[in-house]
Write a structure and sequence with these properties.
Helices cover 75% and strands 0% of the residues. The chain is mostly helical and 147 residues long.
């Protein structure tokens, strides 16, 4: 019998126990934001360039991609917080770029620079709100989970 699958299952079970459901959610968001930030750096989409034009007055678009990636790295790090409630910095870091994007798209829509930006503003706002909901989830201790 091959021990590798069994060892992989043990490692995944240990990781699962270490993260908890809050940490798993935060780690998934961090991964998505890393990819999104890299996409902004390498090949920004037309709607993104047009929708966040106001931000480009503050910094070049590739810096905003790095901002997404930095926030994602912070969120991913705090996904491994050892005790419930210590991950709040990770949730703030994950929500921050989505809120900045929502605000930029909202300004773009209100100013009519990009009339369809209201859909992106709403999508990014709700992405941040989902993080707020997940940040409010209680993390059960191992004794509570066994009951």
């Amino acid at each position: 019998m091959n021990a590798q699958p069994r060892n992989l299952r043990r490692a995944l079970a240990a990781l699962n126990a270490r993260l908890g459901h809050r940490g798993r959610y935060l780690l998934c968001v961090a991964g998505a934001w890393e990819i999104y930030g890299l996409g902004i750096i390498l090949d920004p989409r037309f709607g993104t360039v047009r929708g966040v034009g106001i931000l480009q007055n503050l910094a070049p678009l590739h810096w905003w991609g790095l901002f997404w990636m930095l926030c994602a790295a912070i969120a991913g790090t705090y996904a491994f917080a050892s005790k419930p409630g210590r991950d709040w910095i990770g949730f703030i870091a994950a929500a921050l770029p989505a809120l900045v994007w929502a605000g930029a798209y909202l300004v773009s829509w209100i100013s009519q620079d990009y009339p369809r930006a209201w859909t992106s503003a709403g999508a990014w706002l709700f992405a941040a709100l989902r993080l707020g909901v997940a940040a409010g989830w209680p993390e059960h201790t191992r004794q509570e989970q066994r009951k």
